[in-house]
Amino acid sequence: MTPATRTPAAGGGAGPAPGRAGAGTRALRIVWALSAVAALWWSLGGLEVTPERLSRGLPQAGTIIRQMFTPPNWAYLPDVAEGLSQSVQIAALGTFIAAVLALPFGALAARNLSRLAALPLVGKLALNVIRTFPELVLALLFIRAVGPGPFAGVLAVGIHSIGMVGKLYAERIETVDRASLEALSASGASPLEVFRYGVVPEVLPDFLSFALYRFDLNVRAATVLGLVGAGGIGEKIQIMRTAQQWPSVGTILIGVIVLVGLVDYVSARLRARLT
Amino acid sequence: MPAKPPFPWRGWLAAFAVAAILAWSWRGTGFSLAVLAQGLPEMGEYLARLTPSAERPWHARYLPEIQARLLETVRIAFAASVIGSALSLPFVLVGTRTLAPARWAYNLGRGFLNLLRTIPDLVLATVLVAALGLGPLPGLVALVFFTFGIVAKLLSDTIETVDPGPMEAIAAAGGTRLQRALFAVFPQVAPDYAAYTLYAFEINVRVAAVLGLVGAGGIGQTLMTDIQLFRYGRIGLVVFSIFVVVLVIDAFSTWLRSRLV
Fold first, then answer.
1. Contact at CB, B163 and A18, closer than 8 angstroms
2. Rounded to whole angstroms, how far apart are CA atoms B123 and A258?
3. Interface test with B, best of A65, A176, A224, A271 (most B CBs within 10 A)
4. H helices then E strands: how many in chain B?
5. Which of A56, A87, A146 would best serve as a mutation to test chain B binding (most B beta carbons within 10 A)?
6. ipTM for the predicted complex
7. How far apart are CA B199 and CA B256, in angstroms?
8. What's the sign of the alpha-carbon dihedral B159, B160, B162, B163?
9. Of the candidates B106, B105, B112, B71, the residue with the CA atom closest to the CA atom of residue B218
10. Is residue A3 a part of any domain in this protein?
11. Does residue A187 form part of some domain?
12. Rounded to a whole number, what is the distance in Å from the CA of A162 to chain B's nearest CA?
């Protein structure tokens, strides 16, 4: 089993050695499983998840889901399309802002571009901090600055995405050969010129691919921003849910599923062609 | 330096398309640097009010409630991670080519999984709040679905790459599909499975922190109320505590994952 055949998505899925489990590991696994069950018990105990609540709630959920799709409110489709296209707009502009603003962060966080060891650490820390603030919380803050609506959503998506895009940029820059950068530097190129001629040509396709991947995630994010008033289809979800217009909620859900699926597909296809 | 392609019309075409999409988005979202420049001072003022100061200190008396809500957040995330990944185990009996009873069952299983994964977590949570009532229960159920989607996908993908030798040996000895899964496949992927569960847990903590913004329990609920009531000192403290909890859990879980595999 080679690591190359495995999915990299989990970030830690490199191969286990088959047949590694001896008697000791087995005992350890049982301990792990038991503590997981105990912790689950503790978690559920604090959440007031009782069989009564479930047996009362689940039939109700079933009724609502039936009302959503038998049939959905097709007359609401033009409004859904409008909300969805606004979500796409938020995602597109937000991704663009992040893709540009992440450049200096990525350069700062890359180990092979600076002579000081501290700078990349500062850069990585900054990216981590940015990533930790959820889009929705940022959206609530930007609503303070520019008022409710899609503009606040663009800013929230744009700032939050810097964290992940910057981290991917930095990791990619770190695979650029240090010797060629030093050669440029030795021939009198300024740091900016080293970046422009030594780094950019090599990493550009991958950077575009990272931006496309983030766009994919941002379209999902932009469908929920409206739940806190930051534009897109989420605002219509909120309105129709509060009004208990379930067939319209059903139409929205179908629209969201189709849009996310479509963007997923297109983004994956484009990325496959880029690299 | 790489040689230039003869005529990069494709690149130009793509750049033009991107520019057109951005212009369309600019108009549609009302993006305006002037509005931003005007609004930033107000936001700065707001942020300043969130930071602790002499007239608006972060009171220790807020801590018990915040702590309780944070605990609820972690509980939601943890329970959803365990239940969701437990549910994804039997799924591999249809979700992987090597274990599925038939091609159509495999296609159906994978199709369902792809459909499930397109539903944004908070959209699901919002709908479930309407169905199950306010509180942690709808958040938990939404994250169970979400975890199932991630872990079932990653686990199925991993199983399709494992060494088929043991599986073929059990099949040759007359073993059933379940026996093949239990004795040939699961021992090989157990560390990956644990890593995927932890990975889902990390994401779940981040999502659970904002679930309350749509009424689905956890610390987000406190944040929403505080924002609506303009309790500045508390908002700052809540945002800061979310930040700390997410960072700590992320670091711990990443460390644990690096030891697992």
1. yes
2. 14
3. A224
4. 11, 0
5. A146
6. 0.85
7. 10
8. positive
9. B71
10. no
11. yes
12. 17
Question: Which 3 state secondary structure label does DSSP give B209?
Answer: helix
Residue ranges covered by each domain of chain B: 60-260
CATH code, domain with A234? 1.10.3720.10
B83-92 pLDDT per residue, tens: 999 999 999 8
d(CA A210, CA A274): 10
DSSP A68-83: HHSS--GGGHHHHHHH
With an 8 Å Cβ cutoff, are A64 and B122 in contact?
A: no
3-class DSSP state of A259: helix
- Please check whether residue A85 is in contact with residue B28, taking contact to mean a CB–CB distance below 8 angstroms: yes
- In-domain check, residue A37: no
Instruction: Of A44-48, A93-97, A153-157, B197-201, give the lowest mean pLDDT range.
Output: A44-48
Å from A115 to nearest chain B CA?
A: 24
Contacts of A270 (CB under 8 A, 6+ apart): A212
Looking at every residue in chain B, the average pLDDT score rounds to 87
Domain containing residue A106: 74-274
**Residue at A1 is within a domain:** no
Instruction: Give the distance from residue B59's alpha carbon to the nearest chain A alpha carbon, in angstroms.
Output: 22
Residues 6+ apart with CB under 8 A from A124: A109, A167, A170
What mean pLDDT is predicted for residues A208-219?
A: 94
Q: Which residues contact A197 (CB under 8 A, 6 or more apart)?
A: A184, A189, B1
Distance CA A211, CA A96 (A): 8
CB atoms within 10 A of CB B46: 17
- Number of folded domains in chain A? 1
Q: What is the pLDDT of residues B211-234, one digit of tens each?
A: 999 988 899 999 988 888 888 888
CATH of domain B60-260: 1.10.3720.10
Distances (CA, A) of B2 to A113, A201, A222: 21, 8, 38
